[in-house]
Amino acid sequence: MKRKMKPIAPCSLVISTYNWPQALDLCLQSVTRQTLMPAEIIIADDGSSSETEQLLNYYRETYALNLIHIWQPDEGFRLARIRNKALAAATFDYIIQADGDLILHPLFIADHLRLRKKGHFITGSRVMLSEFTTSRLFRHRSIDIRKYGSDNSNLLNSLRSPLLSSVLADHYKQSGRNRFYVKGCNMAFWKEDLLAINGYNEAFTEWGAEDSELAVRLIHHGIRKRFLKFGGIVFHLHHRLACRSGEKRNFEMMAETIRQKHIRIHAGIDQHLENIPV
Q: pLDDT by residue (tens digit) across 22-71?
């Protein structure tokens, strides 16, 4: 029996991952249930083992997904670099970014595309799933949060209202300490804007602030932030916190970008544009 074809949107979905195929499996399940499918799905893989490649082959064969696997050797935390490689490989003008430890709401892609606007980038929020809910989802290999989730936080972020999301897009978390607030796991950009600022700063080699520093430079370049509230919903699978040893240095680099009003950085996406896989 053939699967019913879903409408396909001319956009790229970039999903970052590192050695957690169990989580990526649930993430890709949620991708297959999108009401509007991205034309390509690029896996930005920061050095996972062959188990991840086997999982991707399963989804290619079972769901006929246009999955592109961008991999680099495991040489420590190099999220900025692998994201740049994936963004360079994107063939569509509009790019939606997520992480491989998320379950995407079925209207995640549709919500992002509904609010896209030239001269703007989008960031959204997330629902934090508890350890108990996450373990049950893994046990049943399920993304049915209504059935297996009961004690999660940030539940306001799980509410969806197209009207409210449109009203709040240009007003929510736009000033003061929230001016540069973003969540790298839930963002979207025009590729031309990323190229103009040279993408992520690959000087960020430990966890923290690489997404906010990117947002700072986009805003310095005149690209305005839209906040996707009450839409573009994602559910974050529970895991231990990443090592914060480099957080102070990263925030100092971001503060310098703010002070100096930097727009374009040296070590960025341009060094990967000639190495795009055919």
A: 999 999 999 999 999 999 999 999 999 999 999 999 999 999 999 999 99
3-state secondary structure the chain: CCCCCCCEEEEEEEEEECCCHHHHHHHHHHHHCCCCEEEEEEEEECCCCHHHHHHHHHHHHHHCCCEEEEECCCCCCCHHHHHHHHHHHCCCCEEEEEECCEEECCCHHHHHHHHCCCCEEEEECCEECCHHHHHHHHHHCCCCHHHHCCCCECHHHHCCCHHHHHHHCCCCCCCHHHCCCCCCCEEEEEHHHHHHHCCCCCCCCCCCCHHHHHHHHHHHCCCEEEEECCCCCEEECCCCCCCCCCHHHHHHHHHHHHHHCCCCCCCCHHHHHHHCCC
Considering the chain, what is the average pLDDT of its residues? 93
